[in-house]
Design goal:
This protein has helices at 41-44, 98-109; strands spanning 2-3, 9-10, 27-30, 48-51, 55-57, 60-63, 69-72, 88-95, 113-119, 125-131, 139-140. The protein has one domain (22-135): Gamma-glutamyl cyclotransferase-like (Hypothetical upf0131 protein ytfp, Roll), CATH 3.10.490.10. It has 149 residues and is mainly β. It contains two helices and eleven strands. Strands 3, 4, 5 and 8 form a four-stranded antiparallel beta sheet that branches. The radius of gyration is 15 Å and the shape is globular.
Length: 149
Amino acid sequence: MVVTSDGGWRPARPRDPEAPREDRLARIAVYGTLRSDSSAADLLRPLVGAREQDVLLPGVLYDTGHGYPALVLDASRHGETPRPGRGVPAEVYRLHDPATALPILDDYEGPEYERRVLRLAPDRPCWVYLWRASVTGMTELPGGWSTTR
């Protein structure tokens, strides 16, 4: 998915030949426990440098009931069409060294999540972790992940 300038989103083109190589992509968007005021902020802090402009990620956030959220980008999985201005609040950071940071973050996120490239703008790709399993029975979090959980 690609976030458009009006706050909406559209499907990304398949396998963009201009996409950055995986080992060079140094931007990550975090929406849950890795946020600066959340429970795993200390894990992320030494791996990142500058915080960039926060964004609304396309998709829907769910409470897994296990102390961490689940982000689903595909609106068809819950029968809803994405609307401009709606999305999941996320912080965007630059990774100091993606080759070092990504394995650490992959291990933290575990097999329930898939790391994928999401284009925040044509020239602003970033990593994001997406939920891989069903969200059936989970509660939607329309305001994003609350750090008071």
